[in-house]
Amino acid sequence: MMKPISIIIDCDPGIDDTIALLTAFVSPELDIRGITPVCGNQPLEKTVRNALQVCELGGRTDIPVYAGCFKPMIREPIYGQFHGKSGLGNTMLPEPVKKPEAQSAVDFLIAELSKAAEKQEPITLCCIGPMTNFAVALRIKPEIAAGVERIIMMGGAYRESGNRTMTAEFNMLADPHAAHIVFSSNIPIVALALDATHQVMLKPEHVDEFARVSGRISTTISELMMFWDRNDVRRYGSRGGPLHDPLVIVYLLAPHLFESEPARIFVEHESELCMGQTIADWYGKSNLEPNAQIVSKVNSQAVIELMLERLSRYAGNKGTL
Ligand code: RIB
Ligand code: CA
């Protein structure tokens, strides 16, 4: 097997974050160096608690969790609308025994990425929430950029409308200033925006399949996935919920399932009307080099099949459990 890809998962659990984490936990191709929850779908105390609970659910209490920023860089928090009061829908997980590390997410990112830069073994950053933690770390020590192989991010909307406002996707709107700092860093980005994630709808029939194969996490997975159903055929073209965050993990496991186009990406962080809107310079109008590959096409059936195979590992079929 190839050398595992070293990753850090920056997240705001969050139902789809949870599915992404559970998929990553049983994927030996990934060496998860740390999980860094941030204020996003829920206030920080809940995203940290949810991350700890999901590590216990997934049997991965070996992975350190570092609490991140409790607010966006400048704007007030806006929180998510589709994750329920706890951030995990109706699912009640046991009070976590696992504790977050004493080190903050920002200090962890600085230390880990500095080490990665020194050793010339850069780490892949999986950003599936507002990008506050990494932006603050970059502001404190910009040189950590050399320790990042690339950023695989869920966020933005380029040829799609927004999902929180007419123009903005949630992660970008929640902290547009952080996104601006990250987009200006020249670190290579793979952008899984709504353009990609809306192609992969988790439909009711999929939920039944996931419940059937996922063994000891079956109840939790079906609860989470049922809660995730938007039931908005007009907006999404079908029942179900868009599989946003898990696509970041699937991209790492099977990049051949995705097609992308190069662009320079920007985010509106000043105008109120279009705050958080992401803009793609596809044709070099900005005279800046592309900094992103924007995923434009997804083999959605194959993504679902891969997710089913991975989550079936919680039934003891194979994998690292
Ligand atoms: O717009 C979708 C994104 O916002 C996902 O990351 C979801 O978890 C929320 O954070
Ligand atoms: Ca998220």
Which secondary structure elements does this structure contain, and how are they paired or packed?
Blueprint: E1 5-11, H1 15-25, E2 30-37, H2 44-57, H3 105-118, E3 123-127, H4 132-140, E4 148-154, H5 170-174, H6 176-183, E5 189-192, H7 194-197, E6 201-202, H8 204-213, H9 218-227, H10 233-236, E7 241-242, H11 246-253, E8 258-267, E9 278-281, E10 292-298, H12 300-311
Parallel strand pairs: 1-2, 1-3, 3-4, 4-5, 5-10
Antiparallel strand pairs: 6-7, 8-9, 8-10
Helix pairs in contact: 1-2, 1-11, 3-4, 4-6, 8-9, 8-12
Bound molecules: alpha-D-ribofuranose and calcium ion (CA).
Calcium ion binds at residues 11-12, 14, 16-17, 40-41, 128-129, 245.
Overview of this protein structure:
- This protein is an alpha/beta fold.
- The protein has a single domain, classed as Ribonucleoside hydrolase-like (Inosine-uridine Nucleoside N-ribohydrolase, Chain A).
- Helix content is 34%, strand content 17%.
- The protein is built from twelve helices and ten strands.
- It has an eight-stranded mixed beta sheet with strand order 2-1-3-4-5-10-8-9.
- Helix 1 runs parallel beside helix 2, helix 8 runs antiparallel to helix 9 and helix 8 runs parallel beside helix 12.
- The chain is globular and about 50 Å long.
- The structure holds alpha-D-ribofuranose (RIB) and calcium ion (CA).
- Alpha-D-ribofuranose (RIB) binds next to helix 1 and helix 5.
- The site of calcium ion has 10 residues, from helix 1.
